[in-house]
Amino acid sequence: MNQEEIKSAFARIQRRNLIASSVGIGIPALILLVLRDSIFESPDGLLLLFAPAIATVAYVQLVNWRCPVCNAWLGRFFTVRECPDCRAILRD
Ligand SMILES: [Zn+2]
Fold it and tell me: Most CB within 10 Å of its CB: which of 23, 28, 38, 83?
């Protein structure tokens, strides 16, 4: 994998994070909009709101946020510039 391929692979990872985040916020927002107050009447309703958000965080943090070269976890910070493991430069 050359430098350009690493950078474009990392750009795809960032894009997936963005899409996943909008889905993770969008689905609960939509549920809230449709069900309105009735969602707060049962604990299951709240679960319905939080499950997509939790799934999104898990996906973004644990599955997607990995180095395109060595698959190491990139850490908590989305400002990362290089892989903490193999030192591949991920963006300019
Ligand atoms: Zn790496």
Answer: 83
In sign, the C-alpha dihedral spanning 9, 15, 18, 21 is: negative
Q: Where are the domains of the chain?
A: 1-92
What are the pLDDT digits (tens) for 5-23? 999 999 999 999 999 999 9
Q: How far is CA 58 from CA 21, 67, 87, in A?
A: 11, 16, 24
Q: What is the DSSP letter of 46?
A: H
Residue identified by tokens 């193999």 is 86
Query: What distance in angstroms lies between residue 67's CA and the mean position of ligand 1's atoms?
Result: 5
Span 37-81, pLDDT tens digits: 787 777 787 787 888 889 999 999 999 999 999 999 999 888 999
How far, in Å, from the CA of 45 to the mean position of ligand 1? 40
Task: Name every residue whose Cβ is closer than 8 Å to that of residue 64 and which is 6 or more positions away in sequence.
Answer: 13, 16, 17, 20
